[in-house]
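User: My collaborator sent over this chain with a note saying "see what the structure looks like." That's all I know about it. Can you take a look?
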Amino acid sequence: MFILVLGSILGLMHLYVWKRTVKDTTSPGRTRILLSAALVLLLVLLIAALVLPRTLGVTHTGWVAWPGYLWFGVAVYLFLLLLAVEPVRLVLWLARRRRRTDPPAAPAVDRRVFLARTTAAAAGVAAVGLVGVGATTALRRPDLLRVPVRLRRLDPAMDGFRIAVVSDIHLGPLRGRAHTERIVSMINATEPDLVAVVGDLVDGTVAELGSAAQPLQDLVSREGTFFVTGNHEYFVEDTAEWLTELERFGMNVLRNESTRIRRGSGGFVLAGVNDPAGESDSAGPDYDRALAGATPDQPTILLAHQPVQVQQVAQRGVDLQLSGHTHGGQMWPFHYAVELAQPALAGLSEVDGTQLYVTRGAGFWGPPVRIGAPPDISVLTLRSDSV
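Assistant: Without extra context I'll predict from the sequence alone. Here is the result:
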């Protein structure tokens, strides 16, 4: 159903792009036919990039995924740029009607074609340029962010405790083992006390991506690595198999449960909840169960993939929630749409007394493009009010 809806939207979007870049800029004939065919082929390539991994498998479809998803990015920005010109086009059309009641046909047509070609060429160059910059950002080494977080009730013995937070790695047809190895190397270099992987690790099966995820077993921290599911973990057929595989890698999967982290006389409760997408598999979030081990004398830190989940825990005494999911918006101007659905886009904020930290994630989904939202790995340093 999702693919059907998305395919319909993409079809309408390409129809508009065809109208403005092909029909309005060419006369009937061979050139228009060739350009129209090229645009249809690009649409087919994009749909193939979306569909083939589900039928042929993730590891065998990189050849179509890369050009398909790159065109996806170009098509999106081409559509938005052309759409942004529509008010100008309308104003010019109204101005022509007011100035002339019966303008000469040929010059008017020539001017319209010239403006259409100029607009299409400018939009095309800008779209390709934006995607080029965005792809460079998405594929480069993630930013390493160091963020101090002050927690009430944190024992001075825990002051300086460091949590490496990474999310949205999105192993799939575009990102594989080398991507994981780089992330593991960056995290280990920070010498964290604990590693939190907050969902959306994979977009494929264990058989396809188990080898790509295997470097996660090399993560090193004093207290271990903890994992909670994201929505994409439930888009694959073998969610339970993936969780077993991650445990085999030495990761601690928190399924609506908690554990206590101690250092000397101090400590905190670390809890984790499933993503709401798990409700389709009868494995949705159970906040009461996850927070059953919380105590009033020590802070509680919750791992939850989606920032919006903070609305369920803010009144349950959670001091800090660590999340991902938003990708920081990934591609401007879609930041604004994400902000409508989530309480925070990225960084540290507060919701009803609970601090919320949202990482922009280390990977991407869909187009390998990030504009205004570079990838990151975050290292949070806990600070005590008593120090």
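A starting point for your reply to your collaborator: The chain has a mean pLDDT of 93.
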